[in-house]
Model the fold of this input.
Amino acid sequence: MTWRHALNNNLIEDTQALLGGHIGANGPSRRVALKAAFGVGYAAAALPIMAQSAIKTPSTGLVTGEVTIEVNGFKMPVYRSAPAGKTGLPVVLVISEIFGVHEYIADVTRRLAQAGYLAIAPELFVRQGDASSYGEIAKLQAEVISKVPDAQVMTDLDACVAWAAANGGDANKLAITGFCWGGRITWLYAAHQPKLKAGVAWYGRLVGNATAQTPSHPLALVGNLKAPVLGLYGAADTGIPLDTVDKMKASLAGGPAMAKASEFVVYPDAPHAFHADYRPSFRKEAAEDGWQRLMAWLKRHGVA
Done:
């Protein structure tokens, strides 16, 4: 996947120059510097930022911003967006890439809220570290992401569902969507949460080595799916081989009802992270088609 390729050192140096010099222990944090330079909270490791293609969804008519959700005594930061003054809202959990909940993910919640959803994007790495402070993808992966247990993530998402039910959401109309790292989590949560009605996984990996933190991967969990998942993938994704997609399709076809109800769409020329409108990988046509399919999938499975 994209995160397997470390950012070019020249890119980091050029970015630091753009932001006004060295960003280190004695200077402002990379996150603060990025906000000052771009006016948004993007993750350092995701640079370069393509400001010309980044979508800006207005907050008009919405309640947006950060709240905290308590999970076994830990206060987890969450960005949520919802139509103002409304209750009984369908709920969508929005799961970030490895870069955490920055402006792109926040905007995705606003897009969903403008369509009538309570959208919740939790900071699922925060116990292990601040993803936004890293400038190197490989280091972020090694020092933070690899230490996040799947079991912890499932518990955190369950807490988000409980919070939603107590704060204007209808937990009986529950969906999840996620990008990259979050795409894999989407498959896992569909095998975990019986209340889930639908999932949409954007280019999440399907296979992998079993570890203490990640004991099972989507291909091994097909028989446990409790909701149908729509997989949106790119044929030009160098990190997710198409043969793994084919294996997943075959396993789904031979699985139980929720597996058989799952579907894949593979965009022929799309790379990894083709929906990420703030990155060079963005492909407008595939991203827009995928979004339309996401909205149709939610409605088709009663999350509306």
